[in-house]
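INFO  loader      accepted 1 record
INFO  loader      residues=216
INFO  predictor   begin
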Amino acid sequence: MSSSPQAVIQHFFDPETWTYTYVVYEDVGSPCAIIDSVLNYDPKSGRTKTKSADEVIAFVQSKQLQTTWILETHAHADHLTAAPYLQSQLGGKIVIGDHITNVQTVFKGVFGLDEQFDTHGAQFNHLLKDGESLAFGNLSLKALYVPGHTPACMAYVIGDAIFVGDTLFMPDVGTARCDFPGGNANMLYQSVQKILAYPPETKLYMCHDYPPATRQ
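INFO  predictor   done
INFO  writer      dumping tokens
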């Protein structure tokens, strides 16, 4: 009887935005998924750089990985995504939860964007539904809808790991904020309970970490 394939998880930390990006794969030369990438942004100059994304690209190429999916757990307010840049260099499809259309509609009104701004998720290659699975090689991920921080937050379950986005932080930090347009504390509570219902050996991978000075 063959055992289930084991995922290798490589993390990259961007110190400017306190963001973790993950590359998940099975072995050298296998398909991979990239989760929550970062495009560096300098607010003083208004310019972007690809330093963090280039580190991910170098790793993927060094392992001869085939990029299948470039995933977002949600639309980020605290950093820019490098997904289009990664796609231009590595291929793959850009994926986000299907409720991103709600977020786009809300912020179209907040920022007074013109009618040409698309709110149907056309900026992404695939919109994931709750419970939907995506395969990459012998591995697969399952979408877990976890609204609250935003209406579109989606966690990704891969084996015994859950990539929780901003829904949860480290225990000494807590949970995501809910005061953005469309945020909802009651929904966030239910989403946290959904994650914590998984077996105790489940590993949680955060999108951000803002360590307090008291952490050892």
